[in-house]
Amino acid sequence: MGEHKKMPRASVLRMELCLELLEQLEADGSVYVTSRQIGEATGVSADKVRQDFFHLGSEGKPKVGYEVAQLAELIRSVLDLKTAKKTCLVGLGNLGRALTASNIWSRAGFELAAIFDTDPSLIGTTTAGIRVRNVTEIYGVVKAENIIAGVAAVPASAAQDTADLMVGAGIRAIWNFAPVKLHVPEDVVVESQSLAWGLITLSYEMKNNIKDQAPERAK
Amino acid sequence: MGEHKKMPRASVLRMELCLELLEQLEADGSVYVTSRQIGEATGVSADKVRQDFFHLGSEGKPKVGYEVAQLAELIRSVLDLKTAKKTCLVGLGNLGRALTASNIWSRAGFELAAIFDTDPSLIGTTTAGIRVRNVTEIYGVVKAENIIAGVAAVPASAAQDTADLMVGAGIRAIWNFAPVKLHVPEDVVVESQSLAWGLITLSYEMKNNIKDQAPERAK
DNA sequence: CGGCATTCGTTAAACAATTAACAATTTAAT
DNA sequence: ATTAAATTGTTAATTGTTTAACGAATGCCG
Q: Mean pLDDT, to the nearest integer, of A81-99?
């Protein structure tokens, strides 16, 4: 029985993929699933799947596999997806609007509870049933609503200031979309996900893939 | 003089950060910059900065540092940011619209040249100066326009089909936003960047950060 | 009931990335 | 000139992640 000290970041990402599959299987009425089946369905090697499950203390039966519902619940528990986490969004630009309309929040236990911007023409309007407030109100709103997470969908130039505001208001986790490394106290979690990164890495990979074509021989 | 065989993925991402800083310095008129200065400005250790530069074959002078313009050009070259790469977008939902309006394309050398969707009410309309086409036209358009990269901003259920269409049309690189591992020939590059991942990892980190508060003592 | 095939949990090895260390090089000061 | 301080390019060591391997457990079939 493996004790989960700290799970590799890559494992966490794979768990998300896996959970999606498990919920689908659950809906289809499947009771058991093997690491091989999971691997084939998600495109991950069976070995890696088992190693991941080992990290979170798996409870499968040899020859049978893992109980779908139980495993899904375990993943949700380790990833802490079930506890509700109130969140605020700062920056209602194009990306902010896309995030607001997205259905990813509830899946991970987040609830979008407030939206802030600096644009006077936006303040006071309503998006997704939430009134857009001036970012200067962030302190009071975060305290009053007990918001613990924040999304920074602002230009790079405003990212650090936004982060400072959030930290000052007591937010413990920041999802940052600006291509900037935020400077925050160590008890605040930051997850950076600049959209630009995808294109940059694509560009690099495209250039290098031509050479790798011959030598590499992936299974 | 280091020969760049293959650069770690993390290095590529840091280069993006670094390039942003370099361009800013260039605009400010700075001529030289040291690894320490870069480190302080970007939040990366100076050692790591030098190691990264080593990967791409750096050319700095001891005691002086790196020539800003030259280093920026080197990074653009290794990341292949200057060569134009025509791109198409499939899926004009909220995320697709946000991407369309974004300014990240030209920065990495990409040019959004076509938009596809399946929604009849969208086909024929114009977004960002580009006419939205039926996704069935993708083969012809990609061939005619010489498009080499594609963005899949579609639901998870449609992701693999979209990828197959792209590959069939001759696209060599896919930027995938669906939380799915795409199955493609090995000469096609895939960069996955599901928005959900950010929330998932945030959730996990938030849960674990409480414990790490005391033991860890980061500089 | 007893072997056989399958699958899990765990350990070990291989691989990759980060961090640290250090000699070589250049500027600047005396 | 010569020393001293600073910074680079590179190698070495540490750390972390992925891949492989293998005994133990379980169901299945004769």
A: 96
